[in-house]
Design brief:
By secondary structure, the protein is mainly α. The chain has 2 domains: 96 residues, no CATH class; 112 residues, no CATH class. 67% of the residues lie in helices and 2% in strands. The protein contains 7 helices and 2 strands. A two-stranded antiparallel sheet has the order 1-2. The protein is globular. It starts with a helix and ends in a 16-residue tail after the last helix.
Amino acid sequence: MSSFNIFSIAWIAIAVVIFFSLFYVVAPYGRHLKDGWGPNVSARFGWVFMESPCVFLMLILAAGAWESLNLVSSIFLTLWLTHYIHRTLIWPYRVNMTGKEMPLTIALSAFFFNIINVSIQGYWIFYFASYSLDWLSSPVFIFGICIFIIGLYINIRSDYILINLRKEKGPGYHIPNSFLFKRISSPNYFGELLEWMGWAILTFSLSGFIFFVWTFANLFPRAIANHKWYKKEFKEYPASRKAILPWII
């Protein structure tokens, strides 16, 4: 077994541990911010800092393999950057983060996680994998890219519903009641799960599967925590609304 596969399996095992631990310890940022996690930094700075490897490191890895890039790996890169340029360099400046903070430990841990994750994805796409142009017309790729695009749309639209809700009703948290918010408390997380499920399918790779597992391990417990928070803070919160999977949980 190659070193890459051994590391990948170990990384999945860590994700499983993180998944179960997050049901007991909620990551302290956003609505769950609390003391006891060390010094804080500006939420906007922390966000841009921790997400930055997803843009810049991925571009560095792509540049290192520039002569061997083909249309398939270029499309993978475009899909990746479509999500992360928005997430890293656009969304933090559209959402109101004035006066908000996050623990430096959270920003640092996410930064180092992204370095590892981007390295796994980038090395597979640009250095290890070999996709022919026929891959772009395969049912697996077509199905995967459709799931990715649907997830991207759900993720971004849900985020902007929350942004516009604060513009309309003022700072703080309010109950959103449009789009998929009618069904679940965290459609933005649901959309992101679909994105990286689609990524795992369209790349048809262990690396893509790893990222989906980590995304699920992080977002599913947080969606449950958000759902509980909404029900606690708003007595009129719709009882039929689920946490992250419509009609399920």
